[in-house]
């Protein structure tokens, strides 16, 4: 173990002291957050039949997600090339903010079990959106999964992303039906993009047309809402990662998000589907 730590520290020295210091500060904060999570889970074991609050469920899911993301970040830092140092430093800073926010939410002054409190009901939702926006601003992340609901409402998620107009040129939303084929999804996406290729029936040619249309749109986000099974986005014609094109899928299943190779997977807050409109 000492030898491994020596190698890690040697790698960090090559990358620069700022990244090393910030990474280890993040690691210490995450260890504290993990301890809080363990304490909360221990207390939840002795519920006495009480129902735990949704805010507690959401917080635990968010902590699990950030722990998984930290493991990915750790590997990226260890394999880092010098030219990526600045990018990784920014990622560490971004994750430090998320961990700090989760630590601030960890006290639960009104308890872990149900006593309805409107102020607590919507607080995690604002946190959820801030986290999503930070992930979307990461140029290395182009495929994001949101699980736990049958798709957040178009009004809520699309409108909030559209309000980020200084960062995204276009936000498009397509509902994926249970029977959706590649051909139908191509037609639905073309409709969202106000693109007419109704005279073209070849799926490969339609995919090329869609791909070129996305590339011309600049920084854009496509939301595929309510995905029930793995979809081949390449065959559809979605050029993820090219010219700032990003994909968000929503699904009831976390496994579907994994099958879709999502780089970040987020548990949706229940408030997202219960209250429509914009949040700050």
Automatic annotation (TrEMBL):
UniProtKB keywords: Plant defense
Name of the molecule in the record: NB-ARC domain-containing protein
Natural source organism: Fraxinus pennsylvanica
PANTHER family, alphabetized: AND NB-ARC DOMAIN DISEASE RESISTANCE PROTEIN, PUTATIVE-RELATED, NB-ARC DOMAIN-CONTAINING PROTEIN-RELATED
Pfam family, one: NB-ARC
Gene Ontology molecular-function annotations: ADP binding
Domain (NB-ARC): residue spans on this chain: 134-272
